[in-house]
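As a warm-up, study this chain.
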Amino acid sequence: MSFMDAARLDYTQNIANELRSGESVPDARFDRVYPVYVQKSSDLHWTPVAVAKRAAQMLVTSPRSRILDIGSGAGKFCIVAALTTQGEFVGIEQRPYLVEAAKAAVARWEVQRVLFVMSNMAKIDWRQFSGFYLFNPFYEHVSEPTRIDNLIQYSKFQYERYLDIVKNRLRLAARGTRVVTYYGFGGEMPIGYKLELHEPQESDALELWVKE
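Now compare it with the structure written out below.
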């Protein structure tokens, strides 16, 4: 291992330890664990550290909590959440290079209870999860300036289809299922979900919904 590699490992490990101990970590420091091309999307697309910590606290009620991050990107929410709570986190993401960046960050941080899957959220079984995190994951389909890249096909039809899938899956979820949104998810929560918390965070708000 070169001196630079050793210094980088020490740098990232210090941040992981700080998060585990409850300390605050600025986003600029955290994001340096990613390649530069991933860092460039952080301000617009990756959940801020402080927001991720609070969202995880809302979702995790016990060590058995299993949370799905829909459109997990570079994995920032899942990594912060796993370092600051006792829950288990799965991120689902369609872009291969972002999944690779997330897995590399997990390996570098030696984070436990995190899994990243390259797939479409419509192709997995949502019944295995007790909670869901959505950071307005489909908005780039209807907002060209917010698009991360040109690797997927964007359309209003696909946007509406994804919203329908989310609402249908949430309707079928068990009682007690918890959903946290940041900037919403583009649609209205299905009947049966109660808004338990609305907290201003950074430039928007976190909302916690619980199925009754």
